[in-house]
């Protein structure tokens, strides 16, 4: 009886989840929420902190799944700490003074290859709620655009379980490395690069750089 009541309560909460925000609406449609950490520096040249995946050797900005009731920024901090040994929060749980959060925004949703459907939970930390019953079929990506003053202040160290290397790359180099990803993922990451460049140098200078991505 208790299990039946619990199931009714869970299903009755669906309208509230649908109205509670875009991330939960994406989860209800089978998307796992991922946050891309765009850690950037403008000097001496526009650069991006990137990681090399142990699974396929592809380069990309660090990214992390967002757990149930976890903020996007908290997920960024957790992912950078666990994968790259980079701490962006102080002891009070606030963003350190040398990190400047410019924006967190939705980028796109990508379908996963069929063989990857259901390979993990649609959201972490949801073992005993409605989301645990939803099969993951796609990923919805947000990006956090964070600027630091100096690259030397952020020197990561890979955990070697998920990432092999953590390095600063110029935006031009990053654009080249990103092409090694699956085509739809590469296109999504290019869009993050474009937006990141706008945050670093302004829209006019960023527009001068954008055509290079299409080469």
Task: Outline the structure in words.
Helix 5 packs antiparallel against helix 6 (183-201). The protein has helices at 2-12, 14-19, 22-28, 72-84, 171-178, 183-201, 203-209; strands spanning 31-41, 47-53, 59-60, 63-65, 99-111, 138-148, 163-170. By secondary structure, it is of the alpha+beta class. The model is unreliable at 1-12 (pLDDT under 50). Strands 1, 2, 3, 4, 5, 6 and 7 form a seven-stranded mixed beta sheet that branches. Strand 2 and strand 3 form a beta hairpin. The chain is globular and about 50 Å long. It has a single domain (2-214), classed as Nucleoside Triphosphate Pyrophosphohydrolase, CATH 3.90.79.10.
Looking at this protein, list some descriptive labels.
215 residues; alpha+beta; Nucleoside Triphosphate Pyrophosphohydrolase; seven-stranded mixed sheet; 7 helices; disordered N terminus
Which structural category do the helix and sheet elements fall into?
Answer: alpha+beta
CATH top-level class = Alpha Beta
| Helix-strand pattern | HHHEEEEHEEEHHH
The domain count comes to: 1
What's the total number of strands?
7
Query: Considering DSSP H and I runs of 4 or more, what fraction of the residues is helical?
Result: 25-40%
Number of helices: 7
Low-confidence stretches: 1-12
CATH topology term: Nucleoside Triphosphate Pyrophosphohydrolase
The average pLDDT value, as a whole number, equals 87
CATH superfamily: Nucleoside Triphosphate Pyrophosphohydrolase
CATH architecture: Alpha-Beta Complex
Radius of gyration: 18 Å
User: What is the first-to-last residue Cα distance?
Assistant: 62 Å
InterPro entries: NUDIX_hydrolase-like_dom_sf (IPR015797)
Protein name: Nudix hydrolase domain-containing protein
């Amino acid at each position: 009886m208790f299990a039946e009541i619990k199931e009714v309560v869970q299903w009755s909460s669906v309208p509230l989840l649908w109205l509670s925000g875009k991330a939960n609406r994406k989860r209800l449609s089978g998307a796992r929420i991922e946050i891309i950490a765009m850690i950037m520096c403008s000097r001496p040249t526009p650069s991006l902190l990137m990681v090399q995946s142990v699974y396929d050797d592809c380069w990309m900005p660090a990214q992390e799944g967002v757990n149930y009731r976890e903020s996007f920024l908290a997920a960024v901090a957790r992912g950078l700490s666990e994968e790259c040994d980079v701490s962006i929060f102080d002891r009070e749980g606030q963003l350190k003074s040398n990190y400047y959060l410019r924006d967190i925004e939705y980028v796109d949703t990508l379908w996963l290859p069929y063989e990857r459907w259901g390979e993990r939970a649609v959201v972490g930390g949801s073992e005993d709620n409605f989301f645990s019953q939803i099969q993951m079929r796609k990923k919805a990506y947000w990006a956090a655009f964070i600027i630091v003053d100096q690259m030397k202040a952020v020197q990561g160290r890979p955990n070697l379980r998920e990432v092999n290397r953590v390095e600063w790359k110029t935006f031009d180099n990053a654009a080249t490395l990103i092409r090694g990803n699956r085509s739809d993922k590469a296109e999504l990451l290019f869009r993050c690069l474009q937006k990141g460049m706008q945050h670093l140098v302004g829209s006019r200078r960023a527009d001068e750089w954008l055509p290079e991505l299409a080469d």
